[in-house]
Each structure stands twice: as structure tokens, then as C-alpha cells.
Amino acid sequence: MDNTRRKFLKLAGLTAAAGVGTTLLGSKAMASGGGGHAAPAHGGHAEVAPTGTRYGIVIDTGKFHDNPGLAQKCQDVCHSYHNVPDFGNPKDEIKWIWTDKFANVFPEHSHYRRDERLLSMDIIAMCNHCDNPPYVKACPTQATFKNADGAVMMDFHRCIGCRFCMAACPYGARSFNWRSPRGVDKEGHPFIKKYNQRFPSRMRGVVEKCSLCSWRTKKGKDPLCVEEACKTASDAMIFGDLNDKNSKIAKLLSSKFTIQRKPALGTHPSIFYII
Amino acid sequence: MYDKGKVLIGLAIFVIAALSIVGYNATMGDVDSFRTDGKPGPEKPVGHDKCVKETAYMQTSHMVLLNEWRDEVIREGKRELVETVGGEMVEKSLQNGCMGCHISKVKFCDRCHDYTNVKPYCWDCHLAPVEAPASKEAH
Amino acid sequence: MVEKILKGNGLYWGWLSLLLMIMGAGAVSYLVQFNYGLGATGMSRDVTWGIYISQFTFLVGVAAGGLMLVLPYYLHDYKSFGRITILGEFMAIAAIVMCLMFIIADLGQPMRATNVLLHPSPRSMLFYDMIVLNGYLFLNVLCGAVVLVSEYKGIKYPNWIKPFIYLSIPWAISIHTVTAFLYSGLAGRHFWLTAVLAPRFLASAFAAGPALLLIIALIMERTAGFDVGRTAKNKLVTIIGYAAILNFFLLGCEIFTGYYSNMPGHMHTLDYLFFGLVDHSTGIMHNNLVPFMRAFVVMGFAGIALLFISRKAKSDAMLGTACVLIFVAFWIDKGLGLVLGGFVPSPMEHVVEYVPTVVEIGVALGVWATGFFVLTLLYKLVVVVKRRSEDLLEIN
Predict the structure, then answer these.
(1) What's this model's pTM, rounded to 2 decimal places?
(2) Which end of chain B has fewer CB atoms within 10 angstroms, the N or the C?
């Protein structure tokens, strides 16, 4: 029974992703857009009726603050598994998950007279796997799309490198391969320190981003960053289906105060923060 | 129209130039990489005698299958295992499926691709299995 | 008829050789970029579009600007534009050629450009941009060629071309509207997220396009004896002048909305462009574009004033200077500030500035040179045909 339900939901998601369900998406956008304009802070949380699976993550920022270096560990695990190159300069930088200060991760929130702890904290930033990702419609080749689980995916084979998606993403979650990630620096050190034979690298000229470890979540595992974070501090990151009322993440969201990044834009991020 | 003669001379030069490329390949082309009988001879995996489809299909259409897998896995999330003709279960993945049996890109993929002068861009991103130092890593 | 472009004086050949040399340098620069990747440019993770896309945006405007020469002649039967209408159409061709080249230059995977056709995405504004740009190129090649060949034969253009000419008029509006929609539909970029972006694009296009045309016409008057006529010039002054004023008016609307509403997101980029912006996490002031943007305002207003004075004074020197001022000013506005400014601050509110590299400038110059090369050949053809048809008239 569960299997048939999943299949149906996958199909529903697929039709939407394939663009056949443009009307469906259109009405979704309208319903939520209206709320977004009337009261920004509220609008972002006034989600549309759930359809299918929608994976999301809750990040408990306090647990990362109490465990210095934990965020770095999550990044290392993610970047080394996914063969993310390190070019050693901000211009070429590629990152799937990283940290920044409160004022940068939440620029639309006031940081006036906030406590020192909050302002100095390193907060994890990553792709929000928005329910209404603005760049999915911007992409001229459907190289980036939303899959049936709600993860926003990249098809590196199809990307032409126009970088329209990078202009369209309000969270700076996307990186471009400005040069070959398989190359070496001036001293001959490879940009990808140690290749993971289980995962491809990318080629120059394509955009890349976090895929919510869809290759793991499909098998019922948590994304790498979540798994790594929980090794040190339990529930530092919680992964699950936001649309499933009985999931741990849904229960947590209904009992704790959380915030999303830039909710006023109507993108409906699936990453939530406990501050 | 005007200058019929000049046009004809120009056409003749073009035809000769075009044919010369074919002629060059036929006579002077790089044949060193082939076996003595002129066939590419890819090395088949040891211990696995059946692929996910019949050999004849794989020879002509493996790229079609790879494209289908790619779209199914990435775009449709259909990541379930596939069964080989011999009943083994393998991952729908070039890197983690195909190359699990075909452990050498150099001795399998490259042999035919070099022979037919095909340069697939798979290996621009996908990592070829680590091979003995003699075989250069794909770039 | 086409063979006529092979006859010219030393100046003509010198100019073409110069352009060819720049095109060669551009090709070499592009090879460098092609082999290294787009990292050979000054673009970065935070400023993901640079002078390629900004030139593209500006040149779509130049192409659309040709409309201001086509519309009065064909829709209002304004006879004084008889000599320059075709120049407008041909300028559009050269501009679109440059636009398409800039797009290809900007792609990370240019070999996959056909994916846009293989996987059509009707929700993407780039999809429509591809359709309208190629359509406009087709329309202008068709209309320009048919009209010119007819004139060469000394007959009136055939009636079947008229629907295409009329279609090209709204089509010109569409190319720049769709190009503006590339920007104004992005929720995360406050500077671009404005309904007046498309009108402002059109206003600056209707000033910059005809201004460039008038500059070229003045040069052709001296080098090729191609006289546009005082009436046409005066009419162009009106068109350029009012369009330029309209652009400043719309910019003023942006400035009012930004600063009076006091919305930080609406003020940031304007601050960055005209005064400089401090990155609040590093405390460093960034103001690369400030001198340019201020020069744009000064040159723009000076150009408008000089434009109307030149008409009173009947001075071509003044007119030329005014057109150069307006063209350069609006190039800074749209070909520099609009695209680059939109990326500041970044989504995480860092301020990262962009400086083009030598390779990048080489490619851009190469594309501009190609555009002018195409334009020169086309205009050469026009001059030849116009002279011939006028000789025919005199004989008759």
C-alpha cells in the first residue's frame, strides 16, 4: 500500500517537475504569493496544501555553537564525498554547504541589539530546496528541476552554463565551475584533494549545488551532513518529510519556534532554523 | 549567372578539399592502436558473462541505455537496482554499476572508442576506475 | 549587387583591416577562455554575469532602437526617413549578431547551446529571448534585403513584404521587453525587481540606438557623401532627446521609490552605484562604479542639452558630440551599471566587486568589431544602392 502511494506521489511530482503541470504550479504560486505580499513574516510559513513528499531539514544552530568545528566537519564530509573542488580563492569558490554569520544568513532579520552569542555564531547555510524555487523556471534547459521528493536537483549533463539560475537564486546556494575542477594549482596540488570513486566530479562550465543527498535519501538514509552532525550532537540537524504529519521533523516544527531564510520572497524554503 | 568558369573552379577546389580529408583518413589514419587483425577487441570482464542486456544490444546501443539510466536516476529518482541477463543485481550507474564489472576503462571502453574515433564526454565528470599507473587517467 | 562591397577607397579598406585585426585578437582571447573556462574572466561566484551579458543587454537595446527609424517611415509615411530607414534595419542586424555572439561567449558549455532547443522550457524567459532575438534577426534580414534589392532594381518593394515590416515593429518592442523580463522577474534581486525596468530599457534603447545611427550617418556624410538631410536629423534629435529624458525620468522614479520608501534592499544597489557601499561584515567601502555612474548622469544631461542646442545652431559637430555623449552615457547606464550593480550586494549581503580581465575585454572588443564589420559592409551596400537609384531617378 505504501508502495502504491509513493508511486502515485512520485508521478504527481514528476508531472509537475516536467512542466506538464504548469497550471498546477501556477495556482500554487498564486495562492502563496498573495499571502507573501500581505504579511511577509507570515506568508512564508503559510504553506500550500501538501502534495507528495517534501524533504526538509531543521538545523539547531545552538548545537553547532556548542560544538565548535561541527559545521566544518559537515562541510568536509559533504565536499569530500561529492568531489567538491577547493580552489583556494573566493572568486572560483564552489560550496554546497558552508557557514556565515547571522547577519549574512538572515540579512532581512534585524540584528540590532541581538545578543553577542547570536551575532558571533557561525550558522550553516545551504540550498533551501525551496518548494517554489525561482530558478527552476529560469533555467532554459530544465537542467535544474524539482524531484518527486522535493529536492531541487541539477542535471550536470544538460547544463549549458548560462548562470541564469545563479542570478535567480536568492540564497547564493549555487556555484559555477569557472575552471576545470580536475585541474591542479600552481604548486601542482589537485583542486580535488582525494577523489571519491563512488561519485562523479563535475566539468568546467556547469553549475552545481547541494542535491539533498538524493542518492542516499532514496535508500532511506539521512543526508551526509545530517548524519555527520548527529554523530557529535544528537538532533543538531533533523531530516524528514515535512508533509508527513507523523514524521519527527513535522512534529518538531509544530512544537518549536523556527525561522526560514527570506520567507517574504515566496520561495518556501524547506530548511528551518532553531535559533 | 556571371563568372560561370570561376564558380566551377571554386566548386572543383571544394570537392577536392572535401575528398582529401576522407582520403587522408583512409590511407594515413592512426592504425597503431588496433590489433593486428584490425579489430578493436575490448577486454570483457572476468567472472561476469552476462550484461544488463544482450551483447548485441549493448554493442550498438549502450549509449542509449546510459542516457535512459541517467534520466531515470537523476530526473525521475528511479534508483532501484537492475537485473542482468544472468540474474545479477547491479546499480543503475556508469561509475558504480558498469565499471564494477568492467573494471578497466582503458581495456574496455577506450579500445572501441579509439577504434571508431568516438570521444564520449562521460569521463569529463565520471571517474574511471583506478588502473595500473601505465594507463593514464582520463581527463 | 553584393560584389559592390569589394570596391572602396583606402579609408574603407583601412577601417575594415583594423576591424579584422581586432576580431583576430578577440578570437585569440576567446580561445584562451574556451580552453581555460570562464574563470579567465573577472566573473565570480557572487557576480556571475559580467560585461558579456551587460553588452548583450545594451545591444538588444541598440537593435530595438532601429524601430525609431522604421516606425515613422512605414507607419506614418514620414518621407524624410526614406534614406535612413534601411540603416535602422541593418543596424538591428549587426546588433543582434553581436547579441548572439555575446550569449555564446558567456556560456560555460557553448557546445551544448542547442540544449535550449532540445529541451524547450516555456517557463524560462531565456527561451523566449532566444525566439524573439532570432525572429527579429530574421525579420530584419528579410525586410532589409527585399527593400534594398527592390531599390537596386529601381522598383518599389513588393507588397508581400509589408506584413513582415509591420510585424517587425511590435517585434522590436518585444525583444527588449523580454530582455528586461530576464531581470525583472527575479525575486531575489531588488535592483532589477521593478516594473519600470522594461519601459526604462525601451527608453534608453530609443535614445542610444538612433544616437549611434546618427553618429554613423554623420561619419558617412563626410566619408561616403551620404547625406541624411536636415529634416531627418532634426526629427532624430526630437526622438533621441525625448527618449533620453524619459530614461532619466524613469531612473528618477527608481531613485524616489528606493530612497523615499527607505527600504534597504531598494537602496543598496543605488547606494553602490552612485555613492559606494560598505560591506558590513568587513567594513570595507566598495565604489568601483561610482565614477562611471556619475559620469553617466553628467554626460547624459549634457548630451540632451547639447542635442537641442545643436538643432538651433544647425551644427553637425555639436550634434555628433551630443550623440556620442548620450550613447556613451547610456552604455554606462545599461551596459555597465545595470547588470553589474544588480549583483551587489550578494544574496548573503556581502559586497563583491567585479573587474573585467584582459581576456574578457579582448573577447568583448572582438565581438564589437565583428558587429561593426557587418555594419560597415551592410552600410556600404546601402550607399551604393542609394547612389545608383538616385542616379536612375536623375536620368529619368
Answers:
(1) 0.88
(2) N
